[in-house]
Amino acid sequence: MNELMSADPTKGLEGARLIDGASFKTALRNVSGSVSIVTSGRAPERHGLTVTAASSLSIDPSTVLVCVNKSAGAHDTIVRTGCFGWNLLTAGHVDLAQKFAGLDGSKGDIRFSEGSWAELVSGSPILIGSLCSFDCQVIGMHPVGTHTVFFGAVLGEVHQDHYEGLIYRHGRFAIPQVLPEAGR
User: Fold this and answer.
1) Count of helices and strands (H, E) across the chain
2) Which strand (E) or helix (H) includes residue 75?
């Protein structure tokens, strides 16, 4: 596993007045994000968390990135195992999203008591029935503030084309609405 090395992201900003975290968080509530569960580890030491900060990065080679808070149980498991699963949720997964966000107080492997889970190549938990899931090997990581950005080479994937994806905006779960195409 190669750790990406780059300059400190705040370098050159000395004396700059960055907005405060509360203002930034308030503004980010306007951004719609796909709701995902990032997973790692094997039973009985699986960990996972709900995230909206995850994205495809490159098609060739197939690469994704996920941003994980350093205080999350899954963070150190991803570092230790060198792999993770990125599971994008459907509209039917609201309860699971809340569970993996820790809203019921659960932590660690107990969060996997709901939903159906499988393994592909790396052994990271993959949610059966998700919109799509990617099984990834960590090829780089970059700490930024409270989070680490993990870069993953995609080893395997499963997907469903007939479900609505779950999004999060203004502190609420929602589904996207397809707009009519212009000129039709």
Assistant:
1) 3, 12
2) helix 73-81
